[in-house]
Design a protein that fits this description.
Length: 122
């Protein structure tokens, strides 16, 4: 059974940093497509950073240069380092796993964590 558990969210001020972590279990970590998504109030869930099937990391334009995705296959963990945070980054952040296909569309991901809240104040 695939399980994903996020941690590390919190409240920070404009320009601050947070590091999110995702602990994964129940599957062969390195064979899945993994991603970080976020959902702001009133908005659809969007991809923040995805590790594509060929190993490339892709970022949404809004976070490029500020967020860094990392993955430790030996420890079955993901991380999302978020720097220079802005109020528009306020959202619930989720890690997700896709077994069969990879991409930025949420529907490709079968398994999701419960999310961790990030709030950025100005």
């Amino acid at each position: 059974q695939v399980q994903l558990q996020e941690s590390g969210g919190g409240s920070v001020q404009l320009g601050g940093s947070l590091r999110l972590s995702c602990a994964a279990s129940g599957f062969t970590f390195g064979t899945y497509c993994m991603g970080w998504f976020r959902a702001a109030p009133g908005k659809e869930r969007e991809a923040v950073a995805i590790r594509e099937s060929d190993g490339r990391i892709t970022y949404s334009d809004s976070v490029k240069g500020r967020f860094t995705f990392s993955q430790d296959n030996a420890k079955n963990t993901l991380a999302l380092q978020m720097n220079d945070l802005k109020p528009e980054d306020t959202a619930m952040y989720y890690c997700a796993a896709a077994r069969f296909s990879c991409g930025r569309e949420p529907w490709r991901f079968e398994d999701w964590g419960q999310g961790t809240q990030v709030t950025v104040s100005s």
